[in-house]
Fold this protein.
Amino acid sequence: MICPNCRAEIPDESLSCPRCGTPFPLPRVVEAELVHPDSSGSPHEEYRQATQSAHFTRIFYTTFPSGRGIPPACLPTFISLGLALAAAFKYGILAAIGFLVFAGVGRLITFFMTVQHWMEGRAINPWILHITTWCFCWLLVAWLSGAPL
């Protein structure tokens, strides 16, 4: 590695330049490597080839915590569908449709709230927003159906 300040040759694992003392940030990617989809990685890796032309091959790389099964981003959607099915059994089909509509509106509101928090440099736990939305939608559907909670 070359120091950007004094242009001295330094070891790659150095946190600062031994010659001028310039600190280095955390390691960064210097040269990316294309990996073919048939390459074997760790058991938690999945490769998917997206685009191939005469000049390049672009590979998308995703990692799931469990290594298999449902991606974590799909879980709130499946929970929403399960709750809509439960609303259909308890309050009727119109309640299930209403639940899905209210949950969709809630998902949009929570998306914009999350983006707003990110823009302000704060993090918010998305599960708190999901659970709050589901509870509010369930109570709203129960109230509109006229049935006891």
In short: The chain has three domains: 1-31, 34-69, 72-145.
